[in-house]
Amino acid sequence: MTKGPVLIDLDSDTTTAPSPSEAAPVPELLSEPAPQGKAMATAAVLAARKPSALARWFWRLLMALVGTVVSIAAWNYTTSLIAATPLLGWAVTGLIAVFVLVALAIAVKEVAAFARLSRLDKLQHQAKDALANDDLEAARRFNDSLVALYTGREDTSWGRDRLKSRRDEVFDAAGQIAMAETELMTPLDLAARAEVEAAARQVATVTALVPLALVDVVTALSANLRMIRRIAEIYGGRSGTLGSWRLTRAVMSHLVATGAVAVGDDMLEPLLGGGLLGKLSRRFGEGLVNGSLTARVGVAAMEVCRPLPFGEGKRPSVRGIIRGALGGLFQSEKS
User: Fold this and answer.
1) Other CB atoms closer than 10 Å to residue 262's CB: what's the count?
2) Pick from 232, 224, 256: which is nearest to 307 by CA?
3) pLDDT, tens digit, for every residue of 124-174?
4) Which residue has the higher pLDDT, 53 or 200?
5) pLDDT tens-digit series, residues 292-319
6) Counting Cβ atoms within 10 Å, is residue 139 exposed (0-12), middle (13-18) or buried (19+)?
7) Nearest one of 126, 122, 129 to 143, comparing CA atoms
8) pTM, full prediction
9) Measured between alpha carbons, how far is residue 170 from residues 75, 139, 173 in Å?
10) What single string gives the DSSP state of each residue in 257-285?
11) Torsion, CA 245, CA 320, CA 199, CA 221, rounded to 10
12) Mean pLDDT of 259-265
């Protein structure tokens, strides 16, 4: 029996085992795609989708049929109830009459909402025509229309007074429009920007912290609907339910058509630093991208709802909005 350690000679040509630093990276980490903001992209496609003519006729005919059947059933029910129990029958008839009046009031409200949105669109065209033709009188008429639009609003009282007092001090169309933008639109732009930042922060936070399927899509869609409606209200286009949906579809259709519902490291790099987006967790990266896309939607909604087109250098920067809305999230993640 041999005592002591056993020595085994290794051949000189034996290959040395690789060190851990030379090991190949895990393939799954390399193949994992960068965050693409799927929640916002899905919400934008859903909101921008326009129903086909066949689908529209289907819903129209269905609503007409259901309305006819319900009306006949209600008539037969109330007449038979009046014949059997007059007091109760007339009470039910009164309730139905009140319901019809409320429905008519809602319909009138929706029509008024469409009229307000149309008024904003007409003011935009009026301002563009005045600038294109360098028409001083047209620019002054536009300023008068803008003052009339915001009459009765306390948050615009100072700007309206300034615009009225300086009306005859400027003698060119561009100066008149620029004066309206400075005196009257600046506080409204700040309020609309705050709404965009709040919506971007909400979408980014929910997407990053709630890993449930479809929750991020529902949150993104609802937050953007609410944001667009609030922006319309800030600029004087208080919209109803149908008006808000139509406005949202117009904004989303524009973004989808122009390919703006796509964002990557190029937009977030000034805030995060080069390549940092790929080092973040998958959910956190998706949250940042969805928040950035929400900021893009907000800027597009401001352009659509604003009665005065943005002047040169006045359009809010999407990157600036992202920095203001999500800067705290980035700092907390990096610290």
Assistant:
1) 16
2) 232
3) 888 888 888 888 888 888 888 888 888 878 878 888 888 888 877 778 888
4) 200
5) 888 888 888 888 888 888 877 778 887 7
6) buried
7) 126
8) 0.68
9) 65, 10, 8
10) HTT-S---HHHHHHHH-TT-GGGS-HHHH
11) 50
12) 51
Dihedrals φ, ψ of 32, to 5°?
-70, 125
The label of the residue with tokens 């935009």 reads 124
| 38: its two tokens | 């799927």
Contact of 325 with 291, CB cutoff 8 Å: yes
Q: Which two tokens stand for residue 59?
A: 């819903």
Greatest CA separation for the chain: 119
Task: Scan for tokens 């090991």, then name that residue.
Answer: 23
- CA dihedral (154, 156, 159, 160) positive or negative: negative
Distance linking the first and last C-alpha atoms of the chain: 63
Computed on alpha carbons and rounded to an integer, the radius of gyration of the chain in Å comes to 30
How far is residue 143's CA from residue 157's CA, in Å, rounded to a whole number? 14
Six-digit token pair at 256? 């989808």
Query: Which pLDDT score is estimated for 185?
Result: 86
At residue 238's C-alpha, the angle toward residues 321 and 106, to 5°, is 140
Q: What distances in angstroms separate CA 266 from CA 36, 94, 247, 272, 273, one per listed residue?
A: 12, 63, 29, 10, 10
**pLDDT for residue 30:** 42
- Determine contact, residues 204/285, Cβ cutoff 8 Å: no
User: 275 pLDDT exceeds 50?
Assistant: no
Q: Are the beta carbons of 123 and 308 closer than 8 angstroms? A: yes
